Amino acid sequence: MNNYIGVIVDSEAVSLDRVFTYKVPESLKSDIKLGQIVKVPFGMGNKKVNGFILEFIDEINESIKIKEVSSIVTDYSVITAKDIDLILKMKKRYFCSYIDCIKLMIPTGITKGVGHKTSSVVCIRGELVEKLKKKPYTDIYEVVGEYNGVYTKSELNREFKFSLSSINTMIKHEVLKIVEKVVSRCDNKVFDSYEEKVLNRKQADVVNSILSSNARKFLIHGVTGSGKTEIYMYLVKKMIEQGKESIILVPEISLTPQMVERFKGRFGNDVSVFHSKLSDGERYDEWLRVKNGEVRVAVGARSAIFLPFSNLGLIVIDEEHEGSYKSESDPKYSAVEIGEMKSEIEGCKLVLGSATPSIDTYYKCTNKEYKLLSISERADGASMPDISVVDMREELKENNKSIFSRKLYKAIEETLEKKEQIILFLNRRGFSTFVSCRKCGLVFKCKNCDVPLTYHNDKKYLICHYCGSTEEIPKICPKCGSKYVKYFGVGTERVEREVKKIFSSARVLRMDKDTTGKKNSYELIYNSFKNGGADILIGTQMIAKGFDFKEVTLVGIVAADLTLNIPDYRAAERTFQLVSQVSGRAGRGNKKGRVIIQTYTPESYAIKYSSQNDYESFYKTEIMLREGMNYPPFSKIFIVNMSSKNESLLIKYTQIVGNFLKNNFAVYDNIDILGPCPSPIGKINEFYRWQIILKGEVTYDMANFIKKSIYEILKKDYNVIRISIDINPLSLL
Fold first, then answer.
1. Could you identify which of 202, 309, 383, 568 might form a hypothetical disulfide with 245, taking C-beta atoms 3.0 to 4.6 angstroms apart as the criterion?
2. Could you report the per-residue pLDDT of 370-415, keeping only the tens digit for each?
3. What is the pTM of this model?
4. Which residues on neighbouring strands pair with residue 248, listed in sequence order?
5. What residue numbers does the annotated binding site for Zn(2+) cover?
């Protein structure tokens, strides 16, 4: 008998991050379930709050006074026993609270009362419907029967020419009846059929290896265009045949249109789509479809990994190397790591796919944690594009100050003449990267953040890409009074303007965060380019992966060095991945593709090996450097970021925390302590930022001990100081 339950209360307070015991009254014992939401009295005033049932407790110390559960909020379980296993693993790994984990697993608005959407409809008697279809009505009051025709008032007006006053009169006399009907908010768009393709020999070998192996974790290392998506769909088909469900993750919203198009075209309404751009209501409806077993497949971004399938057979994480699979807010989870945890808990297959696997994942393959499955050729027999590297230093020597090298200019001209499509890639939005005074050298920075402002020509403003604040373009330098204010660097907006100026007859589209801010805007741009609505697509990393445009024969990488110069140990890896992925957009149809990479550092091994499509050589070079510098995967990087609007208080506490860490961990030979020091970006949105890094054999138990200790140190002022803690963060900035 379930006499007592352990409950997690719905509160963000650090001090309340524990299990509270409540007694189950006799009246609720038959209805209480693990994972339900219940109302419980909490605190001195016994305020009714939501709580999540995490466990059942048969007996407790009778001398302790225990409060009773007030009521049941949901008659079904919003989290399962398997979810609770995952929560416990996440709590240890990501140093987060119970409630942080729970809220990842349920729709955003479920605790706020978000439920079914309903619409008022009119029910009309069946006999009347038939009579009205045959001839104009005379006396509707003569008709009797069941209310089985369902219409809105506008439909009655349009179809039967009823006036609004007539409708209201009939409702009054109960000839018509108003009822509330549940309306789905899910996207029921129908896609063209995406026919199943015959797998080539290599694709079939990969599928058979996954289905027949006792192993659970796999990496498909396939070159761009090798047909990984068709492999995923074949695996999903096999799961459906076995009565099992599948989750397909794509890195971000920008990749979902093409993947949704293919999966819905193949599997129809058996596919749920789940991503961050959905409204609370849409997320609730999609989540409930999964919960109720109405779909067998989910395609979505990072958060779709938590959807409540009951018989999960397969998790696919496409483009597994992408940084967007790592959350930058608490809990700072990695979708790949969650996939590994769920694979153990659910007993399902985990398949990662990438043309440029992360160093960490490929290292796991060499250690036999993952089974490596390689595909070195494109699926349809198409050849890899010809790639050439242009040294922009030589262009300057030849007095070419354009953003286009002579080679890229000529290639664009030739491709337009042949009526083929072009992608131009630059991983920086805006018109220019910064604005400065040519006389005194002052760089115009955000007043809230320690970063240069970016000039956006279409908005005629300087914009901060961190806090979003805007400033008017200065006419004179505030430091020296000079009028010599100049824009430096190149962004996608400026590339667009230059293209339109030089190639005036070309139809141009731009895809970056500025042009895809509205709902469905990405899909509109994608479909326009796919259907031949433009000759040139200019974009940031949104266009770097996943696209399969058959008419794109030229890819130009305007500045390959941008990610190479970031102060981060992953800079070379990210550059190799971006250049390789963008290059892979060329020549995916029957026509030969070519890629032109513009760079000021052609000697970089990241540029060199990406231009040669040589992942193995890049990996060998990079892994050797990582081992020599004791960077992951040979160590862990534990970072403590502290921020506050009060700079002096921040420095004081950072020094206290730094001394605590040195006193407790400096004795370890296998752990280095770096800092305290200001973060590379020292201020964001008015908050000053400092950091401390521990590098080496830092365990999760150590990390949790550090977190608890820091909150104890900050007890008096933790509302003034923000703390962010992570192991192997996405960025050290």
1. 309
2. 999 999 998 877 788 999 999 988 998 899 988 899 999 999 999 9
3. 0.85
4. 299, 316
5. 437, 440, 446, 449, 464, 467, 477, 480
Q: Which two tokens stand for residue 250?
A: 């794509």
> Do 172 and 221 share a domain, yes or no?
no
* 94/154 same-domain check: no
What secondary structure does DSSP assign to 496-563, as a single string?
HHHHHHHSTTS-EEEESTTTS-STTHHHHHHHHHHTTS-SEEEESGGGSSS---TTEEEEEES-TTTT
Residue range 532-542, pLDDT digits in tens: 999 999 988 88
As annotated, the binding site includes 437, 440, 446, 449, 464, 467, 477, 480
Do 263 and 302 share a domain, yes or no? Answer: yes
Residue 463 in any domain: the answer is: yes
> Is residue 484 in some structural domain?
no
Domain with 354, as residue range(s), is 201-375
Distance CA 106, CA 502 (A): 51
DSSP 608-673: HHHHTT-HHHHHHHHHHHHHHHT-TTSSEEEEEEEEES-HHHHHHHHHHHHHHHHHHHTT-TTEEE
Inside any domain, residue 381: no
Identify the pLDDT of residue 117.
Answer: 56
Mean pLDDT, range 728-733, rounded to an integer:
86
- Do 506 and 462 sit in the same domain of this protein? no
Chain-centroid distance, C-alpha 317? 12
Do 132 and 280 share a domain, yes or no? no
